[in-house]
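Quick note —
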Amino acid sequence: MRVGILGGGQLARMMVLAGTPLGLEFTVLDPAEDACAGVIAKQIHAAYDDEEALDRLANNCDLVTFEFENVPAAVAARLARHAPVFPPPQALATAQDRLLEKRLFDQLGIPVARYRAVDDLAALRQAAAELGLPAVLKTRTQGYDGKGQRVLRKEDELEAAWRELAGAPCILEAMIPFQREVSQIAVRDRHGEVRFYPLCENSHRHGILMTTRASPDDPLQGAARQHTRKLLESLHYVGVLALEFFVRDGELLANEFAPRVHNTGHWSIEGAISSQFENHLRAVTGLPLGETDARGPSAMVNLIGELPPSEALLALPGVHLHRYGKAPKPGRKIGHVGIQAPSSAELEARIRRVEAIIAGVGQAAA
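Predicted structure written out below.
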């Protein structure tokens, strides 16, 4: 079967690596000449709204999926007139707009932080008065890895923040004094079967994910699965989806969902019986879903900006290095490390060793 992927970054690359043993063939569409999936799959070099390129993709593939949610939803909808597109374009459109996303959570009874729509500076002032400060101002679209948002702590910061975000349509969210950040990754196939990966606990630095731990025994696992199932079913979803939560006083508050394979699921490549990438492809191509149980204590650490020496990482037990073939750049995800261990205590020790190697590279660069 021939699979087209909108986007040729690291997520597409890992999809291709997972799908090749299944006998799948891949074509990626990406405007970048150095798209890191392009070295292991056919690539159409074109803009996402290039109609001729989209026709080529549709004519040369049996179905189309996407690797990131900033592909224009109209493009996915256009392709869907010529070939099956999974996840459905409507899920992509909802995830791209924070206001639509929050309203869907409300409709499904999934708890969220208090929020207000903000379309101008006057509305921002009113929203700040209603929600109180501190609060977080977020653009409704084009936000990821901490981009497109500002934390507001005082009233005299409102005007400058509005200018910095170029007066784009926004939402203002009440600041949540949360204790943890977790994510639920799930997969739903064409027939409506749903399988869940263990809940993941995540830590961020400067708005970018750094470390994820698979937590099969997390007491919030059941609630996270209930919320995620409702979301999957409401969207008639097919493929892998990640739903991110804040944990406040033992309760879940939904932050956002990603209609794709997700950074917090990278641990599953070595750490789960079937990885999120394989299961995404199984779902969209109509194959039976694979088991999602963890093989044992597992984690993932992102490599941001610079790569540590491969030898230092690979000398550690239970460590698997994934380099994306991307040029080093501050704030850029250029690889990750999967970590497995025979016990939770040993997993933490191995995470600390990996983090020490990464920190050494950062200190040398400084």
